[in-house]
Amino acid sequence: MVFRSLIEVERAIRASWGSDTCAPEDVPDWCPDNPARGQCGTTALVLNDLFGGVLMRGEVHRDGEWVDYHWWNRLGDGLELDLTREQFAANELVGPGEAVSRPTGSGRLDAEYETLRRRVRERLGH
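Given the sequence above, the corresponding C-alpha coordinates read:
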Protein backbone atom coordinates (compact mmCIF):
# COMPACT_ATOMS: atom_id res chain seq x y z
CA MET A 1 0.00 0.00 0.00
CA VAL A 2 1.33 3.44 -0.91
CA PHE A 3 0.52 6.44 1.24
CA ARG A 4 2.05 9.86 1.78
CA SER A 5 2.80 9.96 5.50
CA LEU A 6 2.31 8.56 8.95
CA ILE A 7 0.13 11.61 9.67
CA GLU A 8 -2.20 10.62 6.83
CA VAL A 9 -2.46 7.09 8.21
CA GLU A 10 -3.08 8.37 11.72
CA ARG A 11 -5.89 10.60 10.49
CA ALA A 12 -7.45 7.71 8.56
CA ILE A 13 -7.31 5.44 11.60
CA ARG A 14 -8.73 8.00 14.02
CA ALA A 15 -11.55 8.83 11.58
CA SER A 16 -12.36 5.10 11.27
CA TRP A 17 -12.80 4.28 14.95
CA GLY A 18 -16.28 3.49 16.23
CA SER A 19 -18.00 1.32 18.78
CA ASP A 20 -17.96 -1.44 16.14
CA THR A 21 -14.12 -1.43 16.01
CA CYS A 22 -13.80 -1.42 19.80
CA ALA A 23 -12.93 -4.42 21.98
CA PRO A 24 -16.28 -5.82 23.19
CA GLU A 25 -15.41 -5.40 26.88
CA ASP A 26 -14.79 -1.67 26.30
CA VAL A 27 -17.95 -0.91 24.31
CA PRO A 28 -19.85 0.30 27.44
CA ASP A 29 -17.07 2.87 28.03
CA TRP A 30 -16.63 3.88 24.37
CA CYS A 31 -17.95 7.31 23.37
CA PRO A 32 -17.14 9.99 20.78
CA ASP A 33 -15.44 12.01 23.55
CA ASN A 34 -12.96 9.15 24.04
CA PRO A 35 -12.86 7.43 20.63
CA ALA A 36 -9.55 5.67 21.35
CA ARG A 37 -11.17 3.62 24.12
CA GLY A 38 -10.87 -0.10 23.34
CA GLN A 39 -9.19 0.50 19.96
CA CYS A 40 -5.62 -0.54 20.83
CA GLY A 41 -5.67 -4.14 19.57
CA THR A 42 -7.34 -3.43 16.25
CA THR A 43 -5.29 -0.27 15.69
CA ALA A 44 -2.00 -2.02 16.44
CA LEU A 45 -2.84 -4.76 13.93
CA VAL A 46 -3.77 -2.29 11.19
CA LEU A 47 -0.55 -0.33 11.77
CA ASN A 48 1.38 -3.60 11.68
CA ASP A 49 -0.25 -4.38 8.32
CA LEU A 50 0.88 -1.03 6.95
CA PHE A 51 4.32 -0.56 8.52
CA GLY A 52 5.44 -3.98 9.76
CA GLY A 53 7.57 -3.80 12.87
CA VAL A 54 6.80 -5.39 16.21
CA LEU A 55 3.60 -5.58 18.21
CA MET A 56 4.03 -4.45 21.81
CA ARG A 57 1.87 -5.37 24.78
CA GLY A 58 1.80 -4.03 28.33
CA GLU A 59 -0.36 -4.74 31.34
CA VAL A 60 -3.04 -2.24 32.31
CA HIS A 61 -3.66 -1.71 36.02
CA ARG A 62 -6.67 0.17 37.37
CA ASP A 63 -6.32 1.37 40.93
CA GLY A 64 -3.36 -0.99 41.29
CA GLU A 65 -5.12 -4.12 40.00
CA TRP A 66 -4.47 -5.80 36.64
CA VAL A 67 -7.46 -5.44 34.31
CA ASP A 68 -6.28 -5.99 30.73
CA TYR A 69 -3.51 -5.58 28.18
CA HIS A 70 -2.71 -2.54 26.06
CA TRP A 71 -1.27 -2.96 22.53
CA TRP A 72 0.89 -0.63 20.42
CA ASN A 73 3.65 -0.79 17.79
CA ARG A 74 7.41 -0.57 17.55
CA LEU A 75 8.42 0.33 14.03
CA GLY A 76 11.54 -0.93 12.27
CA ASP A 77 13.60 2.09 13.31
CA GLY A 78 12.75 1.52 17.00
CA LEU A 79 10.10 4.27 17.18
CA GLU A 80 7.23 3.23 19.46
CA LEU A 81 3.89 4.33 18.06
CA ASP A 82 0.81 4.31 20.28
CA LEU A 83 -2.23 6.01 18.77
CA THR A 84 -4.55 4.96 21.61
CA ARG A 85 -2.63 5.88 24.77
CA GLU A 86 -5.04 8.74 25.52
CA GLN A 87 -7.89 6.29 26.17
CA PHE A 88 -6.80 5.72 29.76
CA ALA A 89 -8.16 7.49 32.85
CA ALA A 90 -5.85 8.84 35.54
CA ASN A 91 -6.34 5.69 37.66
CA GLU A 92 -5.30 3.40 34.77
CA LEU A 93 -1.59 2.79 34.30
CA VAL A 94 0.14 0.90 31.47
CA GLY A 95 3.20 -1.05 32.47
CA PRO A 96 6.32 -1.56 30.38
CA GLY A 97 5.79 -3.26 27.07
CA GLU A 98 7.09 -6.51 25.73
CA ALA A 99 7.35 -7.58 22.11
CA VAL A 100 4.76 -10.21 21.21
CA SER A 101 4.04 -12.29 18.13
CA ARG A 102 1.15 -11.33 15.93
CA PRO A 103 -1.86 -13.53 16.75
CA THR A 104 -2.54 -16.19 14.14
CA GLY A 105 -5.76 -17.96 13.31
CA SER A 106 -9.18 -16.83 14.41
CA GLY A 107 -9.35 -14.38 17.27
CA ARG A 108 -11.92 -12.61 19.35
CA LEU A 109 -11.45 -9.25 17.57
CA ASP A 110 -11.54 -10.51 13.97
CA ALA A 111 -14.73 -8.65 13.00
CA GLU A 112 -13.61 -5.41 14.66
CA TYR A 113 -10.17 -5.62 13.01
CA GLU A 114 -11.64 -6.28 9.55
CA THR A 115 -14.04 -3.34 9.93
CA LEU A 116 -11.23 -0.98 10.95
CA ARG A 117 -8.89 -2.31 8.25
CA ARG A 118 -11.53 -1.82 5.53
CA ARG A 119 -12.38 1.72 6.64
CA VAL A 120 -8.72 2.77 6.83
CA ARG A 121 -7.99 1.36 3.38
CA GLU A 122 -11.01 3.20 1.95
CA ARG A 123 -9.92 6.49 3.54
CA LEU A 124 -6.42 6.02 2.12
CA GLY A 125 -7.92 5.37 -1.30
CA HIS A 126 -7.10 1.67 -1.56
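Helices lie at 6-16, 40-51, 110-123. Try to locate this feature in the C-alpha coordinate string yourself.
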